[in-house]
Give the backbone structure.
Amino acid sequence: MAKINDNYLKLKAGYLFPEIGRRVRAFAEANPSAKVIRLGIGDVTRPLAPAVLKAFHAAVDDLATTDKFAGYGPEQGYDWLINAIIEKSYKPLGVSLKTEEMFISDGSKCDCANILDIFALDNVVAIGDPVYPVYNDTNVMIGRTGEADDKGYYKNIVYMPCNEANGFIPALPTRKVDIIYLCFPNNPTGVVAGKAELKKWVDYANANDAVIFFDAAYETFITDPAIPHSIYEIEGAKKCAIEFRSFSKTAGFTGVRCGLVVVPEEVTGTTSTGERYSFNKLWLRRTTTKFNGASYPVQRAAAAVYSDEGWTQTREIIDYYMENARIIREGLKEAGCTVYGGVNAPYIWLKTPGGMTSWDFFDKLLNECNVVGTPGSGFGPSGEGFFRLSAFGHRENVIEAVERIKKNLK
Ligand SMILES: *Cc1c(COP(=O)(O)O)cnc(C)c1O
């Protein structure tokens, strides 16, 4: 008799995006002439940069020739891509990494999930609230948690509320934890952490022999030069932090698929018999056994992001989204809303006017403005009373959506 992994039954049904879809469909059926503008989902809309596309095409052509054909590559990624990222993206930050410390993948969602393979189940995990749901649900799936309570908090996970009072930056946990998820610039709040805030976490991790999972999927959207792009800009982080990055939002690779993990050699944990062991070694073993590498043309396209031309063009696309973010942020402010994020991140996190619940505000915006956003409560209980708007839309839609919201709320 084949038995299932019962942990999956503990998961709350994927409620947020299906429910949004259901409400939008019902509205569109009842109002077929309404032009609905979607600023909800965190997916990009601009095409790939021309230099990236050119490299992608050229790499596909390589596969059509006998001398340049590429079969299996190194499971952990090609050196030419890893070294380009280290040189162009980490060195300018004053961060030096070894080739062996970086692993190329098919995206950050998988990496955030797979990393749990190399950690014992009895580690205590701390997760922000609200949060990117992948961190929580993958811990449920792997069997680290008990059941969820009425709020949606799972037993055995330490939740760190992020709210207006703490500026959406979690306080250090009062209970000792072993693994801490941090995401800056944050999805969904759009908030960033400065060096002092990150130092607090690095010091905590080193003092408590904990590991930080640092999700930097949105680092290229940082505009303030004082904000760190990598956790390794913080002294001591190479001893305690694993960093995740992705080409998805950075370079429009949500459909192309490429990400990376940095596992510094100095990050260690203890074996069940008490000896220190390197997580880098375990991750290499896991990667070479369970993964056969991101595809060759994809890695060529990713490397082209770091060519001079590719980077200039990629920056222009990021600037386009950040101008959208400015339009949304300032428009909402003019409409009298309290807004967070949108300066160093493509998300605007707004406080629902008049103390409405997130879902009531969702319905109001859909019915009265025909604009779709994401209810903050869908990212965790502390998101209640907040609402996320994404800057990844087309400019003319963003402008129109903001005009409609301004008219409605004034
Ligand atoms: C979009 C996103 C990612 C990237 O996911 P990919 O699998 O690389 O597309 C990672 N973390 C967060 C918080 C995100 O919003």
Q: What stands out?
A: The chain has a mean pLDDT of 97.
